[in-house]
Amino acid sequence: MKQLRDIEKLTDKDLGAANKILGSCAEKEYSVISIQDARYPDSLRNIYDPPLVLYANGVFPNVDETPAVAIVGTRDCTPYGIGCAENIGYGLASCGFVVVTGLALGVDTAAARGALRGGGRVIGVIGSGLDIVYPPENGTLFDDVASSGAVVSEYAPGVSAVKTHFPMRNRILSGLALGVAVIEAPKKSGALITAARALEQGRDVFAIPGNIDAVSCEGSNALLREGAIPVLTADDIIDEYAELYPDKILDKPVDDQGAYKVTQHGSEKKAVDNAPVVDYIDFDKILSELSGDEKAVAEIIGDRALSADDIIMRSGLPANQVLTALTMLEIKGCVERGDSQCFYLTNPE
Question: What residue segments make up the domains of the chain, in order of their start?
Fold first, then answer.
């Protein structure tokens, strides 16, 4: 009986379901990219088990000609993990990299926001149909990613996000990228599954060192012990691919022959040494006119020049609140950003 049902499936040529999907995609202006389509990335086509069809909302960046790195990590991340994800996403995007993320809560969301803030393109790979926003609170982020790059799925519109979809989704994350950066991951984590798929596909695996006592960092620290490439800043990733993409990486120094010069970490003066000298700062006046997160951030900066990551670490506030406060302080003229991307207080006019 089962054999008969299998034969019936093979001989069923009804295209009603397929036409319904195509109609839904046309209505919502989603792209349908088959594995034989010229727009389908070769990097993904050449993995062991590529998806036969990709659905995309937005304009799919050409990851075959532009460096792309996936940033992954736990949903239950710490402020440290959020800050690292945002800063690395920002650094990669601002230098011309495409950032690939799963658009889940935690590290994924932080990486996408950092990349968008850096003016870069983002590919968000999700485990549901494109019309299903999961998690629901990321609706605005989905729209922003579609505007700057593309939200991508192998699942047709209307397909719900279920647990089994996400391990399958992970092979696409790594398949689209040159490497995978694991920011913060416990022992049992989807991020580690993505790292394993990356190794199977011949991709690089990077990892951010984390607190040795933190459960949320046990998996990512284990990757470092097993040979993952340590990452402290986005430059550590950028340097790995500089010679492969000399014309694609932005704002990197070159030598007299026009070749890429690898950044020598630690050779530049600290940001605090490069901060402009301000004759007098009336801290009391500045603080008296501020409240909430803005006041907390201004108090932490004080008479120093600090990076956004330092401020996040010192304040204990969520990264998005710190970045919003810094933006408002810049608009009010209370804070300026130095050449080394560090912030310092100034007297507003």
Answer: 26-241, 271-345
